[in-house]
Specification:
The complex is a heterodimer of chains A (407) and B (133). Chain A has 407 residues and is an alpha/beta fold. Chain A is built from 21 helices and 7 strands. In chain A, strand 2, helix 15 and strand 3 form a beta-alpha-beta unit. Chain B has one domain: Rossmann fold. A 4-stranded parallel β-sheet of chain B has the order 2-1-3-4, with helices on both faces. Chains A and B meet through helix 10 and helix 11 of A and helix 2 and helix 3 of B.
């Protein structure tokens, strides 16, 4: 990976086809793309391949275009920007071709050649990411804190809030949980005797910029965050967003700088406490959702396939006293929520979301629980469509807020 | 860098105000960069954020007075977009006066100049102090 980035930086001002192909070949080598056996298992599981109606596209076909030197076709393939990087393909690949990482590196190359995906929400989320690269920015992002929530600047644990206050603003019309998740996280940490540090000028973690190939913005955001982590003198970072967790834990050390901090998603932390062992089942009167007994769980891609955290959230759901019913596709075979990086949302995304919500309904569960705010936003957006009816109507909640209500 | 104010003007009222101001040889700040849109209801919070991302010091939205929208609901939609962008900018620490929504009646050059000049003055009121963002 590092090799191709060095090469990429060296030629970043050159855009002739030979150079692009050279760099692309390096990216191919590093991600084992040569090992593709042309078996098509990836195409069988790719959610985009299943629904893309404009032209046939699949991970296998994109790989074929790349290794046969058709760089132009690679960059123009519909999958190039719409791939969810959900990693489902790599899970079934017999040659462990690292398709998602290959695409991520290739997207960096494409951006340099003035290609980009179709933004969603009028590009506002990409814009605020870029605006946060201003080192002088002083945010007002802690308005969700209240007197009941205890935080401390001297804490060795940082609660990394992520974009929750921002999503709260733009997605409240969908009924999506936003700052409620942040409040719940601090409440739970307080319950465990932790008064976390929350940073007043935390930046977006840069996950979306990284996976969209916008390495420049990603690096600046990461550096600004790392400076603050260092200044705070923390030892551990807790997140409620799987994308933040993965980015801080894996991508910051790989691409920007090793911080030596422990990074955990809140479900990983809580699974080690007695909240997960069902010793404290909710009394009926204070049960987080008294009308619900059976729930199903959506594995977020970053938490599940990327970080291997499958059991922790399930233990916590059982600990709450719910019966957990698994969807047809679960754990490493789980279906993505249909959109990634606020890019390329459309009919394909909606179809994936409806498909997944239909699976959730088929379990007989009264509630779909997830551990990622983006999954919730995307599913609630699909439910907001007046053209779809009760077949996908199911309550959707974040695991963090459910647990907090039960304390 | 020269101060830069982006003014989104609705084609039907505010922009005709700008044209009147021009034909009447009225003077307004060179910081003003007007962008004509077919209807103010067409812009989105992302477009407003984009202006700030690219270095604008302020964004002024000039639409049609209530009840005078050429497309009936465009100015109501503009109010929603304004409110959403305002919330996001507040989170990011921008000052309140850096984004404003105003109405200008058709062909009213004087009103157009007054509104943009007031806006420029409010944005650069603390000229000596560095803009927050």
């Amino acid at each position: 990976m590092v090799d191709s980035l060095v090469l990429y930086a060296r030629f970043s001002l050159v855009s002739d086809k030979v150079t692009i192909m050279n760099i692309l070949q390096n990216i191919i080598n590093e991600n084992r793309v040569w090992y593709c056996l042309d078996c098509g298992k990836c195409s069988a599981v790719c959610p985009i391949t299943r629904w893309e109606a404009r032209e046939y596209t699949s991970p296998r076909l994109l790989v074929e275009k790349a290794i046969t030197g058709r760089a132009d076709e690679v960059l123009e393939d519909p999958l190039f920007w719409s791939c969810l990087t959900c990693k489902r393909c790599s899970e079934v690949c017999p040659s462990t071709v690292n398709f998602s990482e290959f695409l991520r590196a290739a997207r960096g190359l494409a951006r340099d050649d003035d290609h980009s995906g179709t933004c969603t929400h009028s590009g506002m989320i990409q814009s605020w990411g870029k605006m946060m690269t201003n080192p002088d920015m002083r945010q007002n992002r802690l308005g969700w804190l209240n007197d009941d929530l205890k935080v401390s600047k001297d804490s060795d644990t940082i609660y990394f809030v992520g974009c929750l206050p921002y999503y709260d603003t733009i997605f409240k019309n969908l009924g999506a949980e936003g700052v409620e998740i942040a409040q719940a996280a601090v409440k739970i940490l307080n319950h465990l005797g932790i008064e976390p540090n929350v940073l007043a000028d935390e930046r977006c973690c840069g996950h979306d910029q990284l996976w969209e190939g916008d390495m420049d913005t990603f690096r600046i955001l990461a550096e600004l965050n790392l400076e603050q982590f260092k200044a705070a003198g923390a030892k551990r970072i807790v997140t409620t967003c799987p994308e933040c967790a993965r980015t801080l834990k894996v991508d910051y050390p790989q691409f920007v700088g090793d911080h030596g901090l422990e990074v955990v998603h809140i479900t990983e932390l809580l699974a080690e406490t007695d909240l997960a062992d069902g010793l404290h089942p909710a009394p009926p009167a204070s049960h987080p959702a008294p009308h619900v007994s059976r729930v199903t769980y959506q594995d977020p891609c970053r938490l599940g396939r990327y970080m291997g955290v499958y059991d922790a959230p399930r233990e916590l759901i059982s600990g709450l006293g719910f019966e957990l019913a698994e969807m047809e596709h679960n754990r490493s075979a789980s279906l993505c929520c249909g959109t990634s990086c606020w890019t390329a949302c459309g009919q394909v995304s909606k179809n994936i979301q409806v498909e997944r919500l239909t699976e959730a309904k088929a379990t007989g569960a009264e509630m779909l629980v997830t551990a990622c705010v983006k999954c919730q936003i995307h599913f609630k957006c699909a439910q907001d469509d007046p053209a779809v009816g009760p077949e996908i109507d199911i309550e959707i909640r974040d695991l963090t807020t459910l647990i907090a209500e039960n304390l | 860098m020269a101060p830069k104010i982006i003014v989104f003007t609705c084609n039907w009222n505010a922009y005709s105000g700008l044209e009147s101001a021009g034909s009447e040889h009225l003077t307004y700040s060179p910081a003003i960069h007007p962008i004509r849109v077919t209807c103010l209801g067409q812009i989105s919070p992302g477009i407003i954020l984009k202006a700030f991302e690219k270095g604008a010091d302020g964004v002024l939205l000039l639409g049609c007075p209530p009840g005078e929208c050429h497309y009936e609901f465009g100015n109501r939609r503009a109010e929603e977009v304004f409110a959403e962008a305002k919330e996001l900018l507040t989170l990011m620490g921008y000052r309140d006066e850096q984004l404003k929504l105003e109405w200008v009646a058709a062909s009213d050059g004087d009103d157009f100049v007054e509104k943009v000049q007031q806006f420029v003055e409010s944005v650069f009121h603390h000229k000596d102090t560095k803009l927050r963002n």
